[in-house]
């Protein structure tokens, strides 16, 4: 398939699935792109996609970026999901350990240069893992942040050079939680403690009533994305 054919396929799929449910898109995605993977951060959207994918294509790879500084509750959610579904999530680690990072760039890099820390512990590892696939699935929703408002359900990821599926792009937070409750899905208990968006332990705080759902990420910095999504 040449670039023009791929672009036309993506454009048509985005149009065809705009008003269809995420399960329909996931089914088409895994059939059309067998070499596909789901990126899982163990947040609310991603545990929904894990559940859907286990029902549709249980052998599809699911990976997570292990920054080594996730909350204890996040690792426990990973373990509970693995046990419940009988799967093994692919662990993707940074090239540098925390000790090596501190030696090269100083202690607590996330406090002084969060973009650099995210590049080392998230973006570079993601770049490496995605080289093994033709497409990936994410839990992006349009109403999560202004930077995500124009996300399509199917798009070409220029940054990483592969097809990107956002099955929940049109869902609201209420849609996500209705699915979790209706299907009794395992989820990160930090969501019950005012953490609507959960990242690394050092860079995530609870969100106050009335604040933007992502206000707890990198508080104090003019930063709203870790660099995984354009």
TrEMBL record:
Cofactor, free-text remark: Binds 1 [4Fe-4S] cluster per subunit.
Any GO molecular function: 4 iron, 4 sulfur cluster binding
Catalytic activity as recorded in UniProt: [thioredoxin]-disulfide + sulfite + AMP + 2 H(+) = adenosine 5'-phosphosulfate + [thioredoxin]-dithiol
Sequence ranges assigned to domain Phosphoadenosine phosphosulphate reductase in this UniProt record: 36-206
EC number(s) recorded for this UniProt protein: 1.8.4.10
Cofactor: [4Fe-4S] cluster
Binding residues for [4Fe-4S] cluster: 117-118, 200, 203
Gene Ontology CC annotation, any one: cytoplasm
UniProt entry keywords in alphabetical sequence: Cytoplasm, Iron, Iron-sulfur, Metal-binding, Oxidoreductase
GO biological process: cysteine biosynthetic process; hydrogen sulfide biosynthetic process; sulfate assimilation, phosphoadenylyl sulfate reduction by phosphoadenylyl-sulfate reductase (thioredoxin)
Annotated InterPro entries: APS_reductase (IPR011798), PAPS/APS_Rdtase (IPR004511), PAPS_reduct_dom (IPR002500), Rossmann-like_a/b/a_fold (IPR014729)
Gene3D superfamilies membership: HUPs (3.40.50.620)
Pathway stated in the Swiss-Prot or TrEMBL entry: Sulfur metabolism; hydrogen sulfide biosynthesis; sulfite from sulfate
Source species, domain of life: Bacteria
Compartment(s) where it occurs, according to its Swiss-Prot or TrEMBL record: Cytoplasm
CDD domains the UniProt entry points to: PAPS_reductase
Active-site residues, as the UniProt record annotates them: 226
Chief localisation class: cytoplasm
Signal sequence range: none
Role summary: Catalyzes the formation of sulfite from adenosine 5'-phosphosulfate (APS) using thioredoxin as an electron donor.
Similarity comment: Belongs to the PAPS reductase family. CysH subfamily.
Name this protein carries in UniProt: Adenosine 5'-phosphosulfate reductase
Lineage: Bacteria, Bacillati, Bacillota, Bacilli, Bacillales
């Amino acid at each position: 398939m040449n670039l023009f054919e791929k672009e036309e396929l993506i454009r048509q799929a985005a149009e065809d699935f705009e008003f269809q449910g995420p399960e329909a898109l996931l089914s088409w995605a895994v059939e059309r792109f067998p070499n596909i993977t789901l990126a899982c951060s163990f947040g609310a959207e991603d545990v929904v996609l894990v559940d859907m994918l286990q029902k549709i294509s249980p052998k599809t790879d699911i990976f997570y970026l292990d920054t080594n500084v996730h909350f204890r509750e996040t690792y426990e959610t990973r373990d509970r999901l693995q046990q419940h579904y009988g799967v093994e999530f692919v662990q993707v680690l940074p090239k540098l350990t925390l000790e090596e990072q501190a030696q090269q760039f100083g202690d607590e890099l996330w406090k002084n240069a969060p973009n650099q820390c995210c590049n080392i512990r998230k973006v570079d590892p993601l770049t490496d893992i995605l080289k093994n696939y033709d497409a990936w699935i994410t839990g992006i929703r349009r109403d999560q942040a202004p930077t995500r408002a124009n996300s399509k359900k199917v798009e070409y990821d220029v940054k990483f050079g592969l097809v990107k599926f956002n099955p929940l792009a049109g869902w609201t937070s209420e849609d996500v939680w209705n699915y979790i409750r209706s299907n009794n899905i395992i989820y990160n208990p930090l969501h019950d403690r005012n953490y609507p968006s959960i990242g690394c332990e050092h860079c995530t705080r609870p969100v106050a009533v009335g604040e933007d759902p992502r206000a707890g990420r990198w508080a104090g910095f003019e930063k709203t994305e870790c660099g995984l999504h354009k």
